[in-house]
């Protein structure tokens, strides 16, 4: 969510071409209108303005689902008015969430007996799931330290510097220090050896990522489990592991069933996954599951009874929609294990085709791995003439949204482009993207669009003349690129670049 700070002019009006058939007076943009307008006009005005948003299916920046079957959309529309928290009123919806939790826990090999119930909860996304998992670790660690009569005011979590921003949020909001293992050129995930070295008595958990946001790579959770088991034995601590499987949680079980990253590893106590990523549901739904009941401290669970019967809840929000939970259940029932496997295999094949096409240009290094979530991350072999941000900007002309970003410390000098392959990204689209990348690269090679920071600065601060080497004045011949408009664009892009986040 963007926090609104200031608005340019609170009296600004919104005019709409077609809506003028219904209303002649413009609608204020930042003040609530004094009077109602016809529903057709409201629809038209908003619909017209929304046309300027990007096309979700061409948004290759996001892991989040952009296509679902109409039958599922029908179910979602029919449940838009159900508040998920009213469990007594909507017991079937609650039951569907419980079924989803049980299916996911078993998919992740939780030690749940045939007749046992798994422990977990549906959330708005992986961010909320991670907050809940983090709180459970913090509370467990604090309780243990209190019992031992030891200080419990400096909890920390060990992660790679490649963690998604939600971990930084958790750390700041809930006062836990984030100890990040630095990356290096060519190694863009957490090194388990370095991570375990950073663990101390205040470490509430080590968070490993199954599918790094930056290059899709799976971290080596098995090795982490081995090293941490040894360290726990030596020190007498029992530092656990959380796996952030936001994107990989619904990929690995289907494609790499023998990869041990989940509850098969004894130190893995909780796992989160985004239902709205490769869980194949529209935003926002996520899941967090715990290994056993004992891994979720009782005192974090609230019991409410005013909506009917006793209802245990462990979420950050109270009310939320039911549609996504129902949609998740639809996908599980509709696709089953084989259906998910087909979708994921198809995504991986398309990722491979795209990777080969990009490699063929001879201009890029691939920084994603063959084993990982289906995406292609690539950096320029030579960025002396133009950079990935300019390529990203040029691809927008063809409708593609391909993010460019720099890696976290200590690999911040590496800048990459990333294309996420979702279910609705077909082979035809992959081929089209390759041909557009080739076009853009040809343009870049022949007409690099770079406006150097130096040029922009000089042009912005001097007039038409400047001191010549001989002390006299010489005219500066400005190209079209050096006009004030170009300079403004350059700085706007630079500012936007700094703000670019990837999700
Ligand atoms: C590894 C990882 N963790 C957490 C998140 C946050 O997930 P969500 O958008 O479901 O809150 C993301 C988002 O991309 C992610 O890639």
From TrEMBL:
Record lineage: Eukaryota, Viridiplantae, Streptophyta, Embryophyta, Tracheophyta
Catalytic activity line of the entry: L-glutamate + H(+) = 4-aminobutanoate + CO2
Keyword field: Calmodulin-binding, Decarboxylase, Lyase, Pyridoxal phosphate
GO cellular component: cytosol
Top-level enzyme category: lyase
Gene symbol of the encoding locus: LOC115963209
Required cofactor(s): pyridoxal 5'-phosphate
BP GO terms, sorted: L-glutamate catabolic process
Native organism: Quercus lobata
Name of the protein described by the UniProt record: Glutamate decarboxylase
Enzyme Commission number(s): 4.1.1.15
């Amino acid at each position: 969510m963007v926090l609104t700070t200031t608005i340019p002019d609170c009296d600004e009006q919104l005019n709409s071409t077609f809506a003028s058939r219904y209303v002649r007076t413009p609608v204020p943009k930042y003040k609530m209108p004094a009077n109602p307008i016809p529903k057709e006009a409201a629809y038209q005005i908003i619909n017209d303005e929304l046309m300027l948003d990007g096309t979700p299916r061409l948004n290759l920046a996001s892991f989040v689902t952009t296509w679902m079957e109409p039958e599922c959309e029908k179910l979602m529309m029919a449940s838009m008015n159900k508040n998920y928290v009213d469990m007594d009123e909507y017991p079937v919806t609650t039951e569907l969430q419980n079924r989803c939790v049980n299916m996911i826990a078993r998919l992740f090999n939780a030690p749940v007996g045939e007749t046992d119930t798994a422990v977990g909860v549906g959330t708005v996304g992986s961010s909320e799931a991670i907050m809940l998992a983090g709180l459970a670790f913090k509370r467990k660690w604090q309780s243990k330290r209190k019992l031992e009569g030891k200080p419990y005011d400096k909890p920390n979590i060990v992660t790679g510097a490649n963690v998604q921003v939600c971990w930084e949020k958790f750390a700041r909001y809930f006062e836990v220090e984030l100890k990040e293992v630095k990356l290096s050129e060519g190694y863009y995930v957490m090194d388990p050896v370095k991570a375990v070295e950073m663990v101390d008595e205040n470490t509430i958990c080590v968070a490993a990522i199954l599918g790094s946001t930056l290059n899709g790579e799976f971290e080596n959770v098995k090795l982490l489990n081995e090293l941490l088991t040894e360290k726990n034995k030596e020190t007498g601590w029992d530092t656990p592991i959380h796996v952030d499987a936001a994107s990989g949680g619904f990929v690995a079980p289907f494609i790499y069933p023998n990869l041990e990253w989940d509850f098969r590893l004894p130190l893995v106590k909780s796992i989160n996954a985004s239902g709205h990523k490769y869980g194949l549901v529209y935003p926002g739904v996520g899941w967090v599951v715990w290994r056993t009941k004992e891994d979720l401290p009782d005192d974090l669970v609230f019991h409410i009874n005013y909506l009917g019967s006793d209802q245990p809840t462990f979420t950050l929000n109270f009310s939320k929609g039911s549609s996504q939970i129902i949609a998740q259940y639809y996908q599980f029932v509709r696709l089953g294990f084989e259906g998910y496997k087909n979708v994921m295999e198809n995504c991986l094949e398309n990722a491979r085709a795209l990777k080969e096409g990009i490699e063929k240009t001879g201009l890029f290094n691939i920084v994603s791995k063959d084993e990982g979530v289906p995406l292609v991350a690539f950096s320029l072999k030579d960025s002396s003439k133009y950079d990935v941000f300019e390529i990203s900007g040029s691809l927008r002309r063809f409708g593609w949204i391909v993010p460019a970003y720099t890696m976290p410390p200590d690999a911040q000098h590496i800048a990459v482009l990333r294309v996420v392959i979702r279910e609705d990204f077909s082979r035809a689209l992959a081929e089209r993207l390759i041909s557009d990348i080739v076009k853009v690269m040809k343009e870049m090679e022949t007409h690099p669009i770079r406006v150097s920071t130096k040029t922009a600065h000089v042009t912005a601060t001097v007039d038409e003349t400047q001191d010549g080497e001989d002390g006299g004045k010489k005219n500066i011949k400005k190209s079209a690129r050096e006009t004030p408009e170009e300079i403004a664009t350059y700085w706007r892009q630079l500012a936007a670049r700094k703000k670019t986040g990837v999700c």
